[in-house]
Amino acid sequence: MITPPTQEVYSISVGENFTPPTLTAYDNDGILPVTVSGIVDTDTVGTYYITYTAENEYATTTLTITVHVTNNPIPGDYLPYYSSINGLTGNALLNTLTELLNNTADIRSYGGNLNSVLINADKHPTLAGMVYTIYDGAAMSEGADGSSGSSVWNKEHVIPKSWYINNGYADHEGDVHNLRISRASINSTRSNDMFVTGSGSWDSSANGFYPGDDHKGDVARIAMYMIVMMPDVLNFNKIINNGQEVLLNWHKEDPVDDFEIRRNQILFEFQGNRNPFIDHPEIADLIWGTSANHNRTFYQKLFFQSDDAFISMIN
After folding, report:
1. pTM here?
2. E strands along the chain, which residues?
3. Residue 94: helix, strand or coil by DSSP?
4. What was the pLDDT predicted at 79?
């Protein structure tokens, strides 16, 4: 088993020094050698990957971290926006974030014209005039908004507004951090179903809705944001079966990408608050469980089955 790093997604500015974390691998017999592959060109904007590999006579396991090199620092990393949460963990961190996000949010009416900001936020990363839809990852024309059908898109509440409208959700109906552009037919198919585990592409079944391998991390971070915004109304088990563990796994298995980082900044400029799980993915563990307890579930790989074989991270 390779011990996990404190974070799996890093964002640095061009020219900034970056040293990959040192990770240690163990099996039941002791320490294993770890090979590291991948190069981060800190002088060139781009996304880079560092892969750690360890093996014994039975199996091979790998762990990959992502490094974004950007022209400017990620706003959440240098603005004083998060100064109030320094040093906090657990409920203290949750409560302070709830106050921060709500106090800085200027949530507009859902009935107002939110399409323009969502078109900008969900702009397709490579195709001009197109938006990138959640769940199926399609490219659709910016002007193809509509109410129903497979050839048009509309606004999807990732956490459905129908769940908690009588418990204060109405004030959050227009929260753009919870809205994603979706193919209208998929939005209709999903309806207000709970999320369920799965693999591969999006899937709807009698048990619920799986958002797809490429979108489950986005869903997890939006869900955690909404839990922080409405802690008295929402919890993990209302969102997904086997709640907390599954969403925390999704958050790590499908990490933050450039699309989400850009989107978060655009929504911040429009609404005034940020999604902290995009800016600082490690906050999820700081609120909802110790890294050791969670990472034992997530990182226990092919040939490590006993708790005795798990050793906390050495960085």
Report:
1. 0.70
2. 9-13, 25-27, 30-32, 35-37, 46-55, 60-70, 130-132, 139-141, 153-157, 179-183, 203-205, 208-210
3. helix
4. 62
pLDDT band of 290, cuts 50, 70, 90:
very low
List the structure tokens of 165: 């409208």
Higher-confidence position of 218 and 289? 218
Q: What is the DSSP string of 43-63?
A: TS-EEEEEEEEEE-SS-EEEE
149, pLDDT greater than 50: yes
Average confidence score pLDDT of the chain: 84
Q: Where are the alpha helices (DSSP H) in 37-148?
A: 75-78, 90-104, 115-121
Closest CA to 263 of 134, 145, 157, 147: 134
Query: Using the 8-state DSSP alphabet, how is residue 2 labeled?
Result: B
* Partners of 46 in beta bridges: 69
Closest CA to 132 of 153, 160, 112: 153
Domain parsing of the chain, residue ranges: 9-70+296-309, 75-281
* Encoded tokens for 276: 């902290």
CA distance linking residue 253 with residue 258, whole number of Å? 16
d(CA 279, CA 275): 7
SS3 (DSSP) at 21: coil
Question: Which of 99, 1, 64, 68 lies closest to 300 in space, CA to CA?
Answer: 1
Strands 60-70 and 46-55: antiparallel
Measure Cα distances from 226 to 10, 171, 177 in Å: 24, 12, 8
Options 2.60.40.10, 1.10.3210.10, 3.40.50.300, 2.40.50.140; CATH for 9-70+296-309 is 2.60.40.10
